[in-house]
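Q: What changes when pyridoxal-5'-phosphate is included in the input?
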Amino acid sequence: MSFGQIYTGLIDKYFDRLPISNRKNIISIGEGNTPLIKLKNIPKEIGKDVNLYVKFEGLNPTSSFKDRGMTVAVTRAVEEGSNAIICASTGNTSAAAAAYAARAGIKSFVLIPDGKIALGKLAQAIMYGAEIIQIKGNFDDGMQLVKKIGESAPVSIVNSINPFRLQGQKTAAFEIIDELGKAPDYHCLPVGNAGNITAYWMGYCEYSGHIGKMVEKSTRICQDICQYSTDAVTSVPPKMVGYQATMSAPFLRGEPVKDPETIATAIRIGNPQSWDYAWMASRESGGWFDEFSDEEILKVQRMLAEKEGIFCEPASATSVAGALKDIQSGKIAEGSTIVCTLTGHGLKDPDIAINQCKTEMTAIDATFDAVNKAIFAKL
Ligand SMILES: *Cc1c(COP(=O)(O)O)cnc(C)c1O
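A: The predicted holo structure follows.
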């Protein structure tokens, strides 16, 4: 960007590739344009020569990648005359929906699982003024209810079954190609409802001129509405690698999981809505799925904070857990360029962080001697 130019969000930046008819209608809070950070200390520590990057989506306006899809979904909903939106959510979709609805001056209804939502996400939904409906059920139950309600009530569904969500989310792949000058060899990300892995694959294929089923789909959604750009950066799209939490891993089990569990609540999903598309992304790209226990996920979450100064939420850390495992085993060869999506910010879920180090905190006397002693004991 040149001097004196304000960044005005991803729809404005990638307007010719998104299904919005008029720039005047854009509902944006400056989402997108998130940093691609090269990890320094962790690759050194494991002794592997790789170019390992994280795309820190926790630095979006509501601190998760959900803002990318929501700017497009809400802009479209308003263009179509809608006065209310609805979603089921494990937390981050509700935060984004509530914020963009607030910005648009429309109503938002969010269905969240009773008691299983991270504190920061609930705080956001409250502050942005969503109508919060807690249900005695999980995300999958909420999703089924939202689909039913959307059939009769005058509300627009803004879950990732709304194709405009994925259109917005695909721009993360554009940004990566713009910065690296080509697509990476591997793209690693956590998989819950599987919208994001689908969107990245769509974005990589479209932007790198790789003609497959995803580009057809993406073009179809765009073409009737916008001047869809066919210019492409010539590049080979990456292998898409999706990681899940062991007790919430339908892609590893090969079928929906009935009572998904994991401390990484953002991926506590047993019946992914983008099931077929995620398989398509995995197969077309030559990627794979893998799974991690809660302990492994938390270990990597903490490692990223302690070794690199990057605090992401537990679900996000699965992408790096996966990349590290596959780099160490040699499945991902040295010399490769790998991008991991860190889907959300660590401050979304303060309880998880604090619970991990409760025992390490004890108060001492507020005297020079006591503090001096405490410091020298650790130097
Ligand atoms: C939504 C979300 C995911 C899962 O993304 P899907 O598109 O549902 O697969 C992962 N991490 C975080 C932080 C999320 O908010």
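Observations recorded in class: DSSP finds 16 helices and ten strands in the chain.
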